[in-house]
């Protein structure tokens, strides 16, 4: 059985920046990717992608891109999925990452042993088992649909948002969209232009933000004045209400929680279509019979399609949950990354946060590589971080925000608090870097995405 150093599983945004940082610090690794190219879910040609034709970033490019690999000027402020696929492919070329990956390779199983991890994979019908010193899992959080059972039998077309690819799927149909997150609102807006009718079944209120305010991306505004958390929550909620109105003015429930305690919806078009009667607002589903849906307010309607835009759940099918220290809805890991017992297992990208972007994830990857390098050097700083990992693995990096008790919020972090923690640990590891070795440069080999 062949023995290798580290395995990076996945070649989406998180896998790529992880590979880049390992390479930067001279840590040998093998990358494993199920698709034939890099980009993860942003490559709509990837049969495992959950992307749809009209999908765009909900954060602006300058707040999302890697800081040392900016997107080209001609790329739109909120790029479409194909521009992002091109961006990640350019990133992989610029940092010469392709040569480190085995493509069209499925990881079937990983098992812990005394020497690290035994990994079994399959490529072109050939199964092989290899021994790795450590694993860095970067397969993303948006693969396994969370699809609640309907209260009854629906005789029409039932699908999850993961199965939605094109607005043409709505043509000539009476459509009910279950959910009101960012993807649900995108899909409802798409359906307006193709379906016979469109309703949304919504249980919980959301805060709705426009993509542009005063001609600028909304995520580039604010933050200049630091203020107490509760004051910021109250003030920002009031400003958004003044700008957008209350959801109840459009037939939707108002949020029963403070701003920033769940991910906002960055979409003003859905309110436009609700206000014009193009989309109907419905409460939760009470019963389903054939094509008739009865709602909790007693109203009912006929539908040809129910699209459940109900999100995703964490899923790592190739590894036993016990090996991930899984507790409740997610693994309990320090910084959503470091295992309390196994130094040779790192979870990469199991984080969601408003405004974290790929740069925040790159900072996570840098800390992982720096930690592995310093552990190999036997540094005191790596030992100190290991002590912290064991003591604080269950600690939430929520910045004091009371996040909703939902499965999708189990791995949510506060951007400022999370990046501050990454920076603090990075400084400690860098300060202890061996004096006879140069710290690898973090500069990009190019001027950006060309």
UniProtKB/TrEMBL annotation:
InterPro entries named in the record: FAD/NAD-bd_sf, Flavin_mOase, Flavin_mOase-like, FMO-like
- Keywords for this protein: FAD, Flavoprotein, NADP, Oxidoreductase
Picking any one GO molecular function of the record gives: flavin adenine dinucleotide binding
The family note in this entry says: Belongs to the FMO family.
UniProt-listed PANTHER family: DIMETHYLANILINE MONOOXYGENASE
- The protein's name in its UniProt record: Cation diffusion facilitator CzcD-associated flavoprotein CzcO
